[in-house]
Amino acid sequence: MSDGDKLQAQTLAVRAGQVRSQFNEHAEALYLTSSFVFENAAQAAARFSGDEAGNVYSRFTNPTVSVFQERLAALEGAEACVATASGMSAILSLVMALCSKGDHIVASSGVFGATQQLLGGIMPRFGIDSSFVGQSELAEWAAAIRPETKLLFVETPSNPLTAIADIAALAELAHAHGALLVVDNCFCTPILQQPLMLGADLVVHSATKYLDGQGRVLGGAVVGPKALVDEVYKFLRTAGPSLSPFNAWVLQKGLETLAIRMQAQSAGALELARWLEAQPRVERVYYPGLPSHPQHELAMRQQRSGGAVVSFEVCGGRSEAWTVVDHCRLLSITANLGDVKTTLTHPATTTHGRLSAEQRAAAGIGEGLLRVAVGLEAVVDLQNDLARGLALI
Ligand SMILES: *Cc1c(COP(=O)(O)O)cnc(C)c1O
């Protein structure tokens, strides 16, 4: 985006990156094509050699995908963005592009389950090791850094306990050791938090969540300075987890409403969190927008709101938590989040079900913990839905 950074996020979300075709369509076109035609042999040769810019094949570039990439880069205040088939393929591509055998990664122990499995379970087979540290414990991050540490990887707020990591402090730590800070910005989106502006080097997204916003498609992205994003792109165009043009088109439509959705969903989450805190059968509420959150001040400094995810502990354990889940008629029992439809999850028996009881206890995932990813329904309807089960425990 050339002069886009002068515009506000709401404007960029509906305007950035649009290129009109010969038909001068108002809405963004969908280029559902795997390859592109050349004028003549010389142009084909020039496109393949890279002497002439332009589309060749949709594993490399596609005009619909390009609009999504430009729009997301503009929203994150970044030079460049490369879109991927899913959030996990964004993280895989980033690690494969920037790390080599012998390199080391420090990540927070609260990162998304598949990220933990990729970094801790799969990458070591290729000689890339990871250490996992407490999300908010700067001293643990510092102690885990080795001479061969290439990346610090953090997701903030964490899922499901909403622990906050200090992005600016981690960026400083990474840079003092010649490493890069990567932030998974899935929970906040650039509307609520811009990690690159706080000193992070790269942002990764699962576009599957809030960027789409309606639970329709998988997608991901790596966003940051052109030199680093180009490295990821070179891996991606060869290895192949590129974003489908159809999904890119759906995601463009998602970005158009991202700002108003994030504002409305986080306002709803704050209202629900306050209500939960007043319920006698609720033991504890985890929400960065509440003054009772241990890192409320840091959250309010680095985020524009508390976000749309609220977790809470009911009095009792698994059976009480399941009573609340099983008496909901409106909230969807699903592990997904970022949807306009509110979702409800019991982490101990779903997303964190494969951990041992000791690992779960160490991670703070209690049997009575529930996670709500607040959507766009009226908050009073969500309250009534949760109140039905809460009254029975
Ligand atoms: C869902 C998620 C991912 C993985 O994204 P997919 O699109 O499912 O591959 C990564 N990070 C976070 C924080 C997520 O919530």
UniProtKB/TrEMBL annotation:
One cellular-component annotation, GO: cytoplasm
EC code: 2.5.1.-
Class of enzymatic activity (EC top level): transferase
SUPFAM superfamilies named among the record's database cross-references: PLP-dependent transferases
Annotated Pfam families: Cys_Met_Meta_PP
One GO MF term attached to the UniProt entry: transferase activity, transferring alkyl or aryl (other than methyl) groups
Cofactor: pyridoxal 5'-phosphate
Pathway assigned in UniProt: Amino-acid biosynthesis; L-methionine biosynthesis via de novo pathway; L-homocysteine from O-succinyl-L-homoserine: step 1/1
Catalytic activity: O-succinyl-L-homoserine + hydrogen sulfide = L-homocysteine + succinate
GO biological process, one term: 'de novo' L-methionine biosynthetic process
Keywords: Amino-acid biosynthesis, Methionine biosynthesis, Pyridoxal phosphate, Transferase
Sites of N6-(pyridoxal phosphate)lysine modification: K209
Subunit note: Homotetramer.
Family: Belongs to the trans-sulfuration enzymes family. MetZ subfamily.
Record function comment: Catalyzes the formation of L-homocysteine from O-succinyl-L-homoserine (OSHS) and hydrogen sulfide.
Protein name per its UniProtKB record: O-succinylhomoserine sulfhydrylase
Name of the encoding gene: metZ
